[in-house]
Every structure is written in C-alpha cells, then in structure tokens.
C-alpha cells in the first residue's frame, strides 16, 4: 500500500482527477471545498475497506480512480478539506494492519 496526501492541489491536478472519476464525483468536487487530496494505492478488497473507513471517519468523498493498472491494484482518492482528509488518511493507516 502506498499513501500520499496533497495539500492545496493545483488546478492541473483537478484536471487529471476529472478524467479519472465518474460525473457525479466531478459535480461533488465543483460543489464542495477540496483543499486536500489523499491517494491510496491498494488491492481491490482493501480499496473497498479503506473507502468505507474514510467515509465513516471524516466528511470526505472517497472514490476509486479509473484507469489504474494492473487489475489487482487500484487507487482510492480521498477528497475534502485538509483536516478531514488528514483524519480519513490517519484512519486508513491505522486500519491497514492485519485484518484478523
């Protein structure tokens, strides 16, 4: 698993993001303040688990990015205000230990 947080993303990052998400996510980004992006590269089962953790731990939008390879690895974007993204990413890191 790889984790990155981007604070104060520039416009070009939103352009990149818009090409890799569904239309309802693009609309959400237009309507909500996004001062940070958290990125998590993980397996598909982990993606679902981490998206659930992020959404329950903070007021963020957690979404899978399209177009990542290989098929067994994908990327989760966690979008929102800086403090919310940091809280969600901390919850993901804490939950990334052994499942049982």
UniProtKB/TrEMBL annotation:
Assigned keywords, A-Z: Bacterial microcompartment
Domain Bacterial microcompartment: from-to ranges: 35-100
Main location: other
Protein localization: Bacterial microcompartment
Highest taxon, organism lineage: Bacteria
A Pfam family it matches: BMC
Entries under InterPro entries matching the protein: BMC_dom, CcmK-like_sf
Keyword Transport in annotation: no
GO cellular component: bacterial microcompartment
Protein name (Swiss-Prot/TrEMBL): BMC domain-containing protein
